[in-house]
Amino acid sequence: MEKQQRITLAIEGMSCASCAQRLAKVLGELPGVGEAQVNFAAEKAYVNYDPRAIDEDALKAAVADAGYKVKETAPLQLTFPIQGMTCASCAAHVERALGRVEGVEKASVNFAAGKAAVKLAGEVDVDLLRRAVADAGYEMIVDVEVPDDDSVQRAFRRMRGAALPTILVMLLMLWHMFIGPVPHYEVLTVLLSFPVVFFWGWETHRASWRALRGGSPSMDVLITMGTIPPFLMGLAAFWYPGTTFVEMAAAIMTFHLVGRYLEARAKGKASQAIKKLLQLEAKTARILVGDEEKEVPIHQVAVGDIMVIRPGEKIPTDGVVIGGESTVDESMATGESMPVVKTIGDDVIGATINKMGMLKVRATKVGKDTFLAQVVKMVEESQGSKVPIQEFADKVTGIFVPVVIGAAFTTILLWIVFPDFFLSILTWGARYFPWIVSNQPPFIRAIYAGIAVLVISCPCALGLATPTALMVGTGIGAEKGVLIRNGEAIQTLKDAAWIVFDKTGTITKGRPEVTDVVPYGDFTLEETLSLAAAVEGSSEHPLGQAIVEAARQKGLSIKEAAKFTAAVGRGVSGQVNGRRILVGSRTFLAEGSIDYSPLDESMESLEDQGKTAMLIAVDGQLAGVIAVADTLKDESIRAISELKDMGLRTAMITGDNKRTARAIADQVGIDHVLAEVLPEGKVAEIQRLQEQGTVAMVGDGINDAPALKQANVGLAIGTGTDIAIEAADIILVRGDLGGVVTAIKLSRGTFRKIRQNYFWAWIYNAIAIPVAAIGLLHPMIGEMAMAFSSLNVIYNSLRLRKYDVDPAYR
Fold first, then answer.
1. Residues 284-294: pLDDT tens digits?
2. Is the pTM value of this prediction over 0.90?
3. How far apart are CA 395 and CA 755, in angstroms?
4. How confident is the model over 242-273, as pLDDT tens digits?
5. I need a labelling partner for 577 at 20 to 30 A (CA). Which of 214, 588, 691, 772 fits?
6. Which of 232, 155, 211, 205 is nearest to 787 (CA)?
7. In this structure, are residues 352 and 334 in contact, taking their beta carbons and an 8 Å threshold?
8. Residues with catalytic function
């Protein structure tokens, strides 16, 4: 009978436990269904069925007939650029618009990256997403991504176009104020300021209109209110006596555009990690067509194509070596500077560099499935994600602009109602601040103060605080071989109290190696190893293959054994040059009446170290003992020591026996050991540790996947299984524990920058708005201060690059 398969269906439409019971009954009565369980709380059905009698579509149809719906369990995530966003409020507006589209499970918009990440619960027409963004007043780029450099150039052109006439306006104003009247001064300033406010500032005003139409005022609304009304009031000076505000309108817009340009440049620097990764991709590949080599564009390479890579060339795409031998620089993927030897059968990564010999590689992955494409995708999705600390800031940013507009009108009203109070402040301030003029009419002073409040407030600094730090942090991680799959992991990992390790393949190399050869009597080390390898050469056991490999590495001659026999679980025997060789356990030698007691002490010592010790006998005489063990990775001891120095508690969970587990733990310095734990038991052990604090789990195998999911943060060794990698929040590409140290240092450094960014953004607004309201800040000075507040957040995030996140021992 064919083995039953198990499927998990996500169910929609259940309203109570009775629904779950009814659906379980319906599914359980279907022909071919062995067992059906429905979990109301989890909204899932677990069905064991015979695929010969019923298929997945029939199960889904039965769910539908019962009045429920099967929903996709693995949402698709799309990432695409958004044009037209000018501040964090715009991003929040787009996020809400996308979130209202049916089929969208979650939308996250990163203002700093200019991108939206949309998680879909099922199939959604991309045009629906595009229309939702357009209705919100922005543009979604699906087919062609606008390069960051283009946005920087566009911002530069706007800034330059506004700066030239504004400089002339400022020079005219200074001449008019301090040297002598300028003929037709008002007309000249209006003519020069008009293109600044209405042409070069048009994108700002258009963004303001979109934001107001969408019911979500943005930073641009503040700039529009700080420029168009003053400009129109300046025109009124042609007919009515009073102060002209035209110069101020031009200056505010220019300072705003200067800030936008500097911000675009800084954001470009913050997203350099993805640019660098994309630049690594090979543009062409040389493939074999028959017996001839043909150079083709990289997108034409198909799975199965044979690629020829000469020394110094990039490997075009992921594949497996089928010819040649060389060393490959994999630093772009692992951060490891030492080239890696590649021979037939070894996997290679696209975009890595072939250093020495010519290789023939069969393509195994192309396009979006390659390692490089997956890294770019992970980094983009991580940069688009949010950390918990950002949730509160997003809520504040959403109401910030309306509050500021209200504060500006309140300021104007208070200045009109209490002019004497504010005049006393201005009189005092005029002694210290040259831009303060205290002899203006009360209404003019009120307008100045109100406009200053509008243009000096800075929601952008709050909106940029987290995304920019995340972009820089995840970019550094990608360069160091630490791929952070979601931003929340950064905040959680910094608080980790426990680091829990799997043993095999995580702390150890995951493959047996000969660690000790102890010859006995007249036998030499080389002779003992060579004879044992000759017999084990006919064995397929991993321990036997480790002995053969050790002999090969020493350059020993390995002869072919005759009359090979294997006693399962005890040992192997054979004849080499007429001599009978036995390799095995104490029991195996005892069966041959061979006294192994002279090596009993050595055996026990080796076994106490967690090693598998095998006795060797030649023609009935004891010849020595060989120990094989899964050896430690090179950096395990130093990495775990550094983690402990960082204040973390370490533990190891393994299915191995207690003696082996304790031996490995003693070697690397781990105090808390949980041995002989089955895969399902690892989850329970993680849960117990979580009662004592935040737990990060490091693993590499299929059996680690549930524990990686259960842990607060899961870190998967990049050389491990796909299932473990999929279950993890962070992937360590290099495959050693130094990546754990880097990940924790990076999480602490990134979150430190996030907190600093929020601190300075709040401090700036808490000080600047009241100071502007009492009239001590000129609107033009305020606009400069606002621009530099945003820049401070960006460049503070960029300073994260100065942090040393590498392990101290490297």
1. 788 998 888 88
2. no
3. 17
4. 556 788 788 878 877 876 776 666 555 545 55
5. 588
6. 155
7. no
8. 502
